[in-house]
Specification:
The protein is mainly alpha-helical. It is about 75% helix and about 0% strand. It folds into two domains: about 40 residues; about 210 residues, MetI-like fold (Orthogonal Bundle), CATH 1.10.3720.
Length: about 290
């Protein structure tokens, strides 16, 4: 009587996939892979080492940034006593807050209109809407300066006085913030389930009630993420602010620029560190809100 051999059962698909992956992980890396890894670390160090040095020397007890003399919070205390920096911080917060609120409202309305309706010239408007993201900051700053100069001359002919100041800075920040907020809100609307709005209509809700109770809460994470992004960009902007600001409208980036002209001190490092920390927190919160969209 001959015996028949029974073949072992085939391995599961997960085991079949895991075996090549594990072998790939155990395979020694080639010279090209090592060079790519080293190149990645060099780029990482090139970009972030100066930031780490700036943060480190903001705690230097000495006055010179090139020589470490010990750990101290002296320069952070000096910032609190500097009235000019306090005024610049107030201006930055005013500009960032007002421009964020206005640009978020306008961008939300534009995003809803662009996603929900078809009209003549929609493609052109869509292209113009994203111009502030594409064109260089210097080009937009010069265009806004020329616009404000021409507007000032036109208003002067009818008896209105117009000059550069916080108002022009706020308008300039709204001009480039609208595009960034609209991109974020439209990304949320692209995956929106319209059947939820149809269900609200079936329950006799009008268009305003449907938008307020259904649409707005669902797209709110995208709106908040765009608002935080706009606030961060407005707080850190220098080029557009430099061209559109006037007397008494100095913001923190402009103040740092004027301080650097007279020499870099640990006080500038401390101020830059605080701005870096604030920007990182806002960007991190924005990323968390955008993750809730998925």
């Amino acid at each position: 009587m001959t015996s028949t051999s029974v073949s072992s059962p085939a391995s599961s698909p997960s085991e079949a996939v895991a075996t090549p992956v594990s072998r790939l992980a155990q395979r020694p890396r080639s010279l090209s892979e090592r060079l790519l890894t080293a190149n990645l670390w060099l780029i990482f160090i090139f970009f972030y080492a100066p930031i780490l040095v700036l943060v480190l020397f903001s705690f230097n007890s000495g006055r010179y940034v090139s020589q470490w003399e010990g750990f101290s919070l002296r320069w952070y205390a000096t910032l609190l006593e500097n009235e000019a920096i306090g005024l610049a911080l107030r201006n930055s917060l005013i500009v960032a807050t007002i421009s964020t609120i206005v640009s978020t409202i306008l961008a939300t309305l534009v995003a809803v209109g662009m996603e929900r309706f078809d009209f003549r010239g929609k493609t052109t408007m869509d292209s113009v809407l994203y111009l502030p993201i594409i064109i260089p900051d210097i080009a937009m700053a010069v265009m806004l300066l020329l616009f404000f100069a021409q507007a000032g001359q036109a208003l002067g002919l009818i008896g209105f006085r117009f000059s550069l100041g916080l108002g022009t800075v706020i308008l300039a920040h709204v001009a480039f913030n609208v595009a960034f907020v609209a991109v974020t809100v439209r990304a949320r609307l692209a995956g929106f389930d319209r059947s939820l709005e149809e269900a609200a209509s079936d329950l006799y809700a009008n268009e305003w009630a449907t938008f307020r109770h259904v649409t707005l809460p669902l797209i709110m994470p995208g709106i908040l993420a765009g608002a935080l992004l706009a606030f961060t960009m407005s707080l850190d902007d220098f080029v557009v602010t430099f061209f559109t600001s006037g007397p008494g409208s100095t913001t923190l980036p402009l103040r740092i620029y004027s301080m650097v002209k007279t020499g870099i001190t640990p006080e500038i490092n401390a101020l830059s560190t605080l701005m870096l920390l604030a920007s990182m927190v806002l960007v991190f919160v924005s990323l968390l809100l955008q993750r809730k969209q998925t």
